[in-house]
Amino acid sequence: MSADEISPEHEWPLPPAWMWECDRCTDLYRTMRRVLDEVAEARLTGERGIDWDPFDSSVTRQMVLGEHMAAEHVTHLPDWSSSCDTCTYHQERIARAKEPGPRADTAVRQGDEHRARHVYAPPSSVGFL
Ligand SMILES: [Zn+2]
Ligand SMILES: [Zn+2]
């Protein structure tokens, strides 16, 4: 597929209203989109063979937003998606960590951060983190 073809799988979902009501979400979301746009633009127009995102800031920005949403807006996050392999993976991981404790907490938190991706990331990249 060529870069200028936009399929729904690659489109950014429209963030829900509750995200715009939170200053931190709005701020983190705008920064993330700006960083991603800049990296995409540099990759398209810049010299080939150069890593235009050497510090993976586009990934970091997405993780920071996901962490904030998991910490502050867990009640707004969508349910597990039955068509998403990463959701299935997290659900199994949480089920395996039966004993309460740090391992179970981490499994739940990372699952929440993944569910947050369903809110803000294009469907084609939701499963990456
Ligand atoms: Zn927020
Ligand atoms: Zn998922």
Topology (elements, then pairings):
Elements: H1 17-20, H2 23-45, H3 57-72, H4 85-96, H5 102-120
The structure holds zinc ion (ZN) (2 copies).
Descriptive account of the structure:
With 129 residues, the protein is mainly α. The protein has one domain (15-128). The chain contains five helices and no strands. It has helices spanning 17-20, 23-45, 57-72, 85-96, 102-120. The radius of gyration is 16 Å and the shape is globular. It starts with 16 loop residues before the first helix and ends in a 9-residue tail after the last helix. The model has no long low-confidence stretch (mean pLDDT 90). It binds zinc ion (2 copies). One zinc ion (ZN) binds next to helix 2 and helix 3.
Task: Describe the structure in brief.
Helices cover 57% and strands 0% of the residues. It has 129 residues and is mainly α.
DSSP summary: helix tally:
5
Task: Please report which band the strand proportion falls in: under 5%, 5-15%, 15-25%, 25-35%, 35-45% or over 45%.
Answer: under 5%
The distinct bound ligands, ions and cofactors come out as:
zinc ion
Helices and strands, in order, run as: HHHHH
